[in-house]
């Protein structure tokens, strides 16, 4: 035999060593559709593409023409998609070839695949897609090329895919994308370009996508958007631009033509100011997520045009309650969910909810909320879930809420709650989940609470018993002391006033010796003092601006171990101390505001949580 022929045959034989391709045929259901499937096992590390048949034994009465699903099994490895596939299975509809090591797609890869509608090619190692790779796939509706290694794509690489509706290019290290890459995709509905390291958005990229409904640009490096970037995408329903370092470079008219938009995600894009023009035409928007940004205030009427909004997330910003206008939510009468967690809110403004009575879920987790005053949520009649985890709340009062007959979930974990109104527990009859872990009077999590109310109430006896010491009251300028029974060993008070306040400690419900009076913010809010028996000043301290005009100021007053100790809220060291010379039982405390009206909130100090006689 001619030596050249021998060498040629040996090379040809050697190139196919270690290559195998075979099917395990079975019936299968994928996405609710019944298929006759080839479960493919291919071992082709060298990229051999000369297979003449795919081995395997068909089920009785079936043949190659019946195969509609190709699934590459987990152990399969190949650097190419074998062109024999659609030649042998001409009626193939569904290809699942994920994470099998494919490196390139060329003009021969999908020859004969004219009936394929779904192609899953995610998680391979594709670095190159040649022009014409998808030419034969005119019926293709879904193409997933995510999590490959594509640095670029040829212009018009998708031309001819006139029926393509879903294209996923996410998680590729793409550096450049030509201007016309999406040409011919007029029927595309979903485009995912998440985490592709895109720096610049080409103005006309999305212009051909007239029927696009969902666009994801999450997690790229885009620093600015052309104002006309989405001007042709009038059918867009959902837009995700989160996790891009855009800052304040988002044009006011960027969303002007997106009048059909229902979901807008702007999470963590580093905006410091909300541009009211962004939302001017979004009257059909139902969900807006602008959490994890850097703005510290929201302009009034920012959301006036969002009349269809159902869900709003403004959490994880730096918003104090004073930076949220009272009328911010007025026009969002359909709003059902408000998320404002991880902000700097100290007081929940009841005015926020005046016009949004359909709200069913509130999330104010991890703020700095100290109290829930009477009337806080009374305008909300449909509340089903409330999250107040990680605040400084001390009391849960029934008067803070309106109708609670629909409440099923209440999370008050990691506060400093030491008193709960039993009326709240009884009237929230459908309550399934009540979480109190990390509080003072209870550290439990209750499940099916409403159904087991009578069994659970004894375990909350400390909380409900402590509630009798809670006082919410107002004193009028110049009126005498108003007296209340005193819990031992002290009280935690918060007061909102414009001038000095007086607190008396006596054995009776009127001022009588022996007594102690604590004066806070006297001498034009510069001094504080303790007076014994109504006439002898026995302690004085410089306390400039200790009363914060127009807002609540908190103090802790205790009388344990025969010592009067006065400490500012949030501080460890007292600013007034007096050791009683004449020991007497403190049975009552009195409240007075001689120069200005005052609003008071009083509750027992933490030591009162200890159960007595239990």
Automatic annotation (TrEMBL):
TM segment ranges: none
Signal sequence residues: 1-18
Record PROSITE patterns: LRR
Keyword Signal included in the entry's annotation: yes
Gene3D superfamilies: Ribonuclease Inhibitor
Domain (Farnesoic acid O-methyl transferase): residue spans on this chain: 480-603
Key words, A-Z: Leucine-rich repeat, Repeat, Signal
Domain of life: Eukaryota
A Pfam family the protein falls into: LRR_8
Stated name of the protein: Farnesoic acid O-methyl transferase domain-containing protein
Species, as recorded: Chironomus riparius
Highest classification ranks of the organism: Eukaryota, Metazoa, Ecdysozoa, Arthropoda, Hexapoda
């Amino acid at each position: 035999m001619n030596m050249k022929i021998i060498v040629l045959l040996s090379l040809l034989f050697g190139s196919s060593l270690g290559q195998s391709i075979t099917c395990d045929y079975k019936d299968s259901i994928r996405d609710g559709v019944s298929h006759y499937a080839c479960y493919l096992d291919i071992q082709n590390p060298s990229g051999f593409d000369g297979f003449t048949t795919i081995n395997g034994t068909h089920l009785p009465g079936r043949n190659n023409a019946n195969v509609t699903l190709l699934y590459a099994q987990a152990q399969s490895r190949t650097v190419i998609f074998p062109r024999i596939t659609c030649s042998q299975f001409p009626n193939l509809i569904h290809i699942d070839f994920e994470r099998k090591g494919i490196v390139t797609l060329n003009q021969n890869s999908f020859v004969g695949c004219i009936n394929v509608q779904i192609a899953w090619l995610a998680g391979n190692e594709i670095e190159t897609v040649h022009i014409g790779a998808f030419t034969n796939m005119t019926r293709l509706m879904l193409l997933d090329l995510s999590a490959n290694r594509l640095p670029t794509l040829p212009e018009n690489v998708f031309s001819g895919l006139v029926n393509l509706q879903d294209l996923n290019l996410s998680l590729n290290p793409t550096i450049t994308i030509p201007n016309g890459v999406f040409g011919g995709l007029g029927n595309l509905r979903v485009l995912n370009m998440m985490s592709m390291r895109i720096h610049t958005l080409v103005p006309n990229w999305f212009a051909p996508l007239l029927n696009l409904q969902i666009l994801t640009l999450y997690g790229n490096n885009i620093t600015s958007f052309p104002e006309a970037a989405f001007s042709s995408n009038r059918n867009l329903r959902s837009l995700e631009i989160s996790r891009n370092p855009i800052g304040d470079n988002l044009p006011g008219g960027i969303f002007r033509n997106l009048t059909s938009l229902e979901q807008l995600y702007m999470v963590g894009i580093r905006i410091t100011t909300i541009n009211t023009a962004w939302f001017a035409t979004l009257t059909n928007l139902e969900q807006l997520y602008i959490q994890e940004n850097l703005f510290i205030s929201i302009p009034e009427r920012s959301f006036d045009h969002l009349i269809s909004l159902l869900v709003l997330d403004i959490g994880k910003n730096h918003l104090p309650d004073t930076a949220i206008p009272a009328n911010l939510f007025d026009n969002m009468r359909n709003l059902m969910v408000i998320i404002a967690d991880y902000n700097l809110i100290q007081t929940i403004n009841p005015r926020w909810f005046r016009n949004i009575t359909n709200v069913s879920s509130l999330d104010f987790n991890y703020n700095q909320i100290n109290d829930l005053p009477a009337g806080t949520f009374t305008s909300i009649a449909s509340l089903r879930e409330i999250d107040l985890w990680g605040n400084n709340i001390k009391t849960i009062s029934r008067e803070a809420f309106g109708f609670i007959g629909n409440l099923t979930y209440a999370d008050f974990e990691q506060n400093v709650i030491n008193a709960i109104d039993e009326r709240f527990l009884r009237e929230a009859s459908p309550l399934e989940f009540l979480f109190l872990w990390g509080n003072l009077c209870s550290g439990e999590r209750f499940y099916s609470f409403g159904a087991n109310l009578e069994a659970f109430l004894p375990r909350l006896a400390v909380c409900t018993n402590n509630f009798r010491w809670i006082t919410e009251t107002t004193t009028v300028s110049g009126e005498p002391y108003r007296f209340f029974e005193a819990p031992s060993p002290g009280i935690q008070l918060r007061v909102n006033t414009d001038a000095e306040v007086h607190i008396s400690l006596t054995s009776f419900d009127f001022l009588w010796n022996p007594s102690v009076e604590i004066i806070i913010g006297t001498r034009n809010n510069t001094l504080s003092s303790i007076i014994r028996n109504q006439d002898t000043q026995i302690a004085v301290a410089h306390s400039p601006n200790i009363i914060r005009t127009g807002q609540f100021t908190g103090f802790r007053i205790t009388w344990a171990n025969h010592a009067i100790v006065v400490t500012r809220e949030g501080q460890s060291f007292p600013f007034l101390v007096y050791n009683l010379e004449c020991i007497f039982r403190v049975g009552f405390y009195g409240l007075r505001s001689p120069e200005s009206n005052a609003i008071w909130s009083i509750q027992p100090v933490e030591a009162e949580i200890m159960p007595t006689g239990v």
